[in-house]
């Protein structure tokens, strides 16, 4: 059922794209994108509001043709034995990775004329493109549709401002069969802060119960919250994504990114990851990865 829901969301986003944007507008991701304020990105002020059903970037969009892993997860396991693989796969420790992410506003100006409801979709792919022995398979695909509510605020704090609060219903799955199927549902709370060239978002979540738990104790490994920290310096951007459990020291992950200009609108991207859960199939698997590629849209 969740896979069907994901497909419906993909079709909806495609219809929005072709009915409301020309292709040239969609892919015209200019250099000044990285210096947009948090308020501009989420249209928190009336001067930035552009109406509903316009497709725009959401989370970072990038392509890393080369990604190295210190220890490929060649035999995925789960704390639920029904979802532990009995077969070992000869994965390469070098693969390609890419992420696409878009959002569109569904409703504008609810709750005292200020709140907005957005539909977001993110897809992350890990591709064994150099592995001819496995016919260059996609090792893992993660699908992440969500409904997001954002409400603007202006709370001064340490020289900056908290600019929004909100929450989202988030579903994430890999669309695979037993024993490698993984999925979970969350209610994620949002709080966004900006201070000059710094943007910080704090996102704690509550995992919703699942009768057929494919990844028990996922919170123990990936964590119960995520914090994103982004800093813009001219045409350079540094951002990190950190997850961690509330009640223990072990667990969580950190992803460090550096985006830099190459030529014209083309920007390079270096990404370092360490910890658990780079993908859903790796939720309880720890590794270090390093990827090199190009970036199209950032925080």
TrEMBL record:
Cofactor note: Binds 1 Ca(2+) ion per monomer.
Major localisation: membrane
Compartment(s) of residence: Cell outer membrane
One example GO MF annotation: phospholipase A1 activity
Cofactor entry: Ca(2+)
Chaperone in keyword set: no
Pfam families listed in its UniProt record: PLA1
EC class: hydrolase
Annotated catalytic residues: 171, 173
InterPro entries: PLipase_A1, PLipase_A1_sf
Coiled coil: none
Signal peptide: 1-23
Keywords: Calcium, Cell outer membrane, Hydrolase, Lipid degradation, Lipid metabolism, Membrane, Metal-binding, Signal, Transmembrane, Transmembrane beta strand
Catalytic reaction(s) noted: a 1,2-diacyl-sn-glycero-3-phosphocholine + H2O = a 2-acyl-sn-glycero-3-phosphocholine + a fatty acid + H(+); a 1,2-diacyl-sn-glycero-3-phosphocholine + H2O = a 1-acyl-sn-glycero-3-phosphocholine + a fatty acid + H(+)
Binding site for Ca(2+): 135, 176, 181
PANTHER family reported in the protein's UniProt record: PHOSPHOLIPASE A1
Subunit comment: Homodimer; dimerization is reversible, and the dimeric form is the active one.
Similarity section: Belongs to the phospholipase A1 family.
Name of the protein described by the UniProt record: Phosphatidylcholine 1-acylhydrolase
């Amino acid at each position: 059922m969740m896979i069907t829901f994901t497909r419906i969301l993909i079709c909806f986003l495609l219809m929005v794209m072709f009915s409301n944007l020309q292709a040239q507008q969609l892919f015209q991701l200019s250099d000044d994108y990285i210096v947009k304020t948090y308020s501009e990105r989420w249209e928190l002020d009336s001067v930035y509001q552009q109406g509903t059903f316009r497709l725009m970037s959401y989370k970072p969009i990038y392509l890393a043709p080369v990604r190295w892993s210190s220890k490929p997860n060649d035999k995925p396991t789960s704390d639920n034995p029904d979802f532990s693989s009995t077969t070992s796969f000869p994965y390469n420790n070098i693969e390609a990775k890419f992420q696409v992410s878009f959002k569109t506003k569904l409703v504008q100006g609810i709750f005292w004329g200020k709140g907005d409801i957005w539909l977001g979709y993110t897809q992350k792919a890990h591709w064994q493109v150099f592995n001819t022995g496995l016919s260059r398979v996609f090792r893992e695909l993660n699908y992440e549709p969500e409904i997001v509510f954002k409400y603007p605020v202006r709370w001064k704090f340490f020289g900056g401002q908290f600019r929004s609060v909100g929450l989202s219903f988030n579903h994430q799955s890999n669309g695979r069969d037993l024993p490698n199927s993984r999925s979970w549902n969350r209610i994620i709370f949002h709080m966004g802060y900006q201070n000059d060239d710094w943007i910080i978002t704090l996102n704690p979540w509550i995992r919703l119960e699942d009768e057929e738990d494919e990844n028990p104790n996922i919170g123990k490994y990936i964590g119960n919250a995520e914090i994103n920290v982004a800093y813009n310096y001219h045409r350079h951007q540094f951002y990190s994504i950190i997850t961690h459990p509330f009640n223990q020291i072990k667990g969580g992950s950190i992803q460090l990114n550096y985006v830099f200009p190459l030529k014209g609108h083309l920007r390079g991207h270096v990404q370092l990851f360490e910890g658990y859960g780079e993908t859903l199939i790796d939720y309880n698997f720890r590794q270090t990865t390093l990827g090199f590629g190009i970036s199209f849209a950032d925080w």
